[in-house]
Write a structure and sequence with these properties.
The protein is mostly beta strands. It is about 0% helix and about 50% strand. It contains no helices and eleven strands. It is globular. The relative contact order is 0.31.
Length: about 120
């Protein structure tokens, strides 16, 4: 049974940092692309960053480029999202997702999802 479990969310002041973790289990993810999405109240779920597990290649949304870094730890089967210089507009529920052999950008293309972790940035 595939499981993606996010952690690391919380309340932080603007300009602060958080690191989200996504622990993946239940299968080998070497052929997967892992994505971090976020969804603010009343808005669509959007891709923030993704990483191809096999070669570590990455993609970032323009809104987070230069502030967020996605990475993976093969030994721990965990994907991270380091978030620096946080802004109030980064406030959202953040989800981890897995896409088999793809470079997907839309939620519907992802096969597995975590339950989400809340990030709140105060001004």
């Amino acid at each position: 049974q595939v499981q993606l479990v996010e952690s690391g969310g919380g309340l932080v002041q603007a300009g602060g940092s958080l690191r989200l973790s996504c622990a993946a289990s239940g299968r080998s993810f070497s052929s997967y692309t892992m994505g971090w999405f976020r969804q603010a109240p009343g808005k669509e779920r959007v891709l923030v960053a993704r990483i191809k597990w096999s070669d570590g290649s990455t993609f970032y949304a323009d809104s987070v480029k230069g502030r967020f870094t996605i990475s993976r730890d093969n030994a721990k089967n965990t994907v991270y999202l380091q978030m620096n210089s946080l802004k109030p507009e980064d406030t959202a529920l953040y989800y981890c997702a897995a896409d088999y052999q793809g470079l997907a950008r839309t939620p519907v293309e992802y096969d597995y999802w975590g339950q989400g972790t809340q990030v709140t940035v105060s001004s």
